[in-house]
Design brief:
The chain has 313 residues and is an alpha+beta fold. The chain has helices at 76-86, 91-95, 152-162, 169-177; strands spanning 33-36, 39-43, 60-64, 67-70, 97-101, 121-125, 204-205, 209-210, 240-246, 269-272, 291-294, 303-304, 308-310. It has a 4-stranded mixed β-sheet, with helices on one face. The termini are far apart.
């Protein structure tokens, strides 16, 4: 999997683990979920619009039971309430650093280690969910933006506390499609229909200059763009979203038709949706079928999550 999407930690990285497991609680999160009816949809993509190495194909029918999913991603304000209630320490905080897109750092920011193959990713000490560009930054004024610098393990801890879970890849993709069949985006196949921006992706020349023509440089508020046919916002662009599944690029060739939940084991967890760093010149993963993955303890400034629940409200 390409590190251009979100770089990962090395397997031998080992923070001082937080042994605290926050208790599950009765949650009022139901008001933020939308109901997705049970039924069949066609999952995946092939051909020139897909990345074969990522395992986007073959296109295959999937039968899903009814479920609910977050209309928006978990926000900084949401995550702050979780931290206040539980004292949870994210893995980025335990490691003492996370990956930050260099274009968001000030010109006089001290030199830091860069990812060799994707040097726009910088290892920034003191970067975490509450300090997204490092210790000089905070989330003030961005309470309605998606929380970032959260690992899969952090997302799972939030779900345990809120009485929810992460969506499976199949659930995520059906919700992202918004009732459309075979389209690249939640609204159709045209990237900017009628000249209107419908998602937050990199504008300009990557990686040197983001013009912000879509209204945002970095993350956007979780409800910044109109929802799809199911009432779900920002399933392409803005931030990659953790899913429950282990990732396997060959899984769709043997995936069960009914409520697939991914491989039984693995080394990386699936991510969906692309981010504000996706750009057609190098990474066209801002599509509803696109897949990526990272290790469960990895974090970066373009990775967040949304929650799900079984059944109808």
């Amino acid at each position: 999997m390409s590190g251009c999407c979100a770089p990962g930690r090395e397997p031998n990285d080992d923070p001082a683990r937080d042994e605290h497991v926050p208790p599950a609680i009765a949650s009022d999160i139901d008001s933020t979920l939308v109901a997705i009816p049970g039924g069949t949809f066609r999952m995946g993509a092939v051909g020139t619009v897909a990345y074969d190495a990522d395992g986007e194909g073959p296109i295959h029918p999937v039968d899903l039971s009814p479920y609910r999913i977050g209309a928006v991603c978990v926000t900084n304000d949401d995550f702050a309430r979780f931290v206040d209630a539980t004292g949870h320490v994210t893995e980025a905080e335990q490691f003492g650093w996370s990956f930050v897109f260099g274009g968001l750092l000030p010109d006089d920011f001290p030199d830091t280690a860069a990812v060799e193959a994707t040097p726009w990713w910088r290892q920034v000490f003191g970067a975490d969910w509450n300090h997204p560009e490092g210790p000089h930054s905070d989330v003030g004024g961005c309470g309605d933006h998606p929380v970032v610098h959260v690992s899969w393990n952090d997302a799972a801890a939030y779900c345990a506390w809120s009485g929810t879970r992460l969506p499976t890849e199949a659930e995520w993709e059906r919700a992202a499609r918004g009732e459309l069949v075979g389209s690249a985006f939640p609204w159709g196949d045209e990237l900017e229909p009628g000249g209107r921006h419908r998602m937050n992706v990199f504008q300009g020349e990557f990686p040197g200059h983001d013009t912000g023509d879509d209204g945002w440089v970095g993350t956007a508020p979780v409800g910044a763009y109109e929802p799809n046919g199911y009432g779900v916002h920002n399933t392409t662009g803005n931030v990659w979203e953790w899913c429950a599944d282990w990732y396997d690029p060959a899984f769709y060739r043997r995936s069960p038709r009914r409520d697939p939940a991914g491989p039984a084991t693995g080394t990386t967890k699936a991510m969906r949706g692309g981010s504000y760093l996706c750009h057609a010149s190098y990474c066209r993963r801002y599509r509803v079928s696109a897949r990526s993955a990272n290790t469960p303890d990895s974090s970066a400034g373009n990775v967040g999550f949304r929650v799900a629940l079984d059944g109808h409200a």
